[in-house]
Amino acid sequence: MQLTLKIWRQKNASDKGGFVTYPVKDVSKDMSFLEMLDVLNEGLIEKGEDPVHFDHDCREGICGTCSLYINGKPHGPLQTTTCQLHMRSFSDGQTITIEPWRAKAFPIVKDLVVNRSAFDRIIQAGGYVSVGTGGVPDANEIPIPKNIADLAMDAAQCIGCGACVAACKNASAMLFTSAKISQLALLPQGQVERKTRAEKMVAQMDAEGFGACTNTGACEAECPKGISITNIARMNREYFSAVLSSENI
Ligand code: FES
């Protein structure tokens, strides 16, 4: 395959940045999208040029670091992570536009790399549980109904890639935050901090500059792990019941 890549290049957060066009040849349809970028970068390095910076780690759809906006969609044309996208999803001669996640709360570090530490701070605000130290508990000591366990595990599939934010016209992080709140609110182990968790995490989400949810559902449609927006409804219930029972009102 021969392709034309239009890639966003930006030296640092304060640089204006712009698109640079690169032709690439001999791309196998069996390459992953990131392998195709590796080939481009090998050519740039051979010519003494600065390679295109992009985030990646596991390349197995687990870590959530591969954050590319491809032809106007987070992670490209399929509902998967960029590292699990293969070149067979594109056609010979196609032009592919590659941009970083676009959100104020995700400032650009360089080229296609954005700083997603805002997500870490939301987790630090309340995405944890208190556990008693001591011996290892028996596996069946805390029975959890299967339907509840399934809902919690579905929410726990969120890999924090940020596609939900990139897909949302408001750059809202409510799908991410609600998945993290839900996985703990549903389980007995998450009950200790339940009342304060939603308040703290939502407050941090707002402080980071993410937008509000207007129920367009773009986040769910683009999420590579299929996280449901029903988690947002659960987060809202958790938040309002926490606020209404707060001693501050
Ligand atoms: S590199 Fe880890 S999910 Fe893509």
UniProtKB/TrEMBL annotation:
GO terms for biological process: aerobic respiration; respiratory electron transport chain. GO terms for molecular function: 2 iron, 2 sulfur cluster binding; electron transfer activity. InterPro entries: 2Fe-2S_ferredoxin-like_sf, 2Fe-2S_ferredoxin-type, 2Fe2S_fd_BS, 4Fe4S_Fe-S-bd, Beta-grasp_dom_sf, Helical_ferredxn, SDH/FRD_Iron-Sulfur, Succ_DH/fum_Rdtase_N. Its cofactor is [3Fe-4S] cluster; [2Fe-2S] cluster. Pfam families: Fer2_3 (PF13085), Fer4_8 (PF13183). Residues 149-179 form the 4Fe-4S ferredoxin-type domain. It comes from the Bacteria. Residues 18-102 form the 2Fe-2S ferredoxin-type domain. Belongs to the succinate dehydrogenase/fumarate reductase iron-sulfur protein family. PANTHER family: SUCCINATE DEHYDROGENASE (PTHR11921:SF41), SUCCINATE DEHYDROGENASE IRON-SULFUR PROTEIN (PTHR11921). This is Succinate dehydrogenase / fumarate reductase iron-sulfur subunit. It comes from Algoriphagus boritolerans DSM 17298 = JCM 18970. The lineage of its organism: Bacteria, Pseudomonadati, Bacteroidota, Cytophagia, Cytophagales.
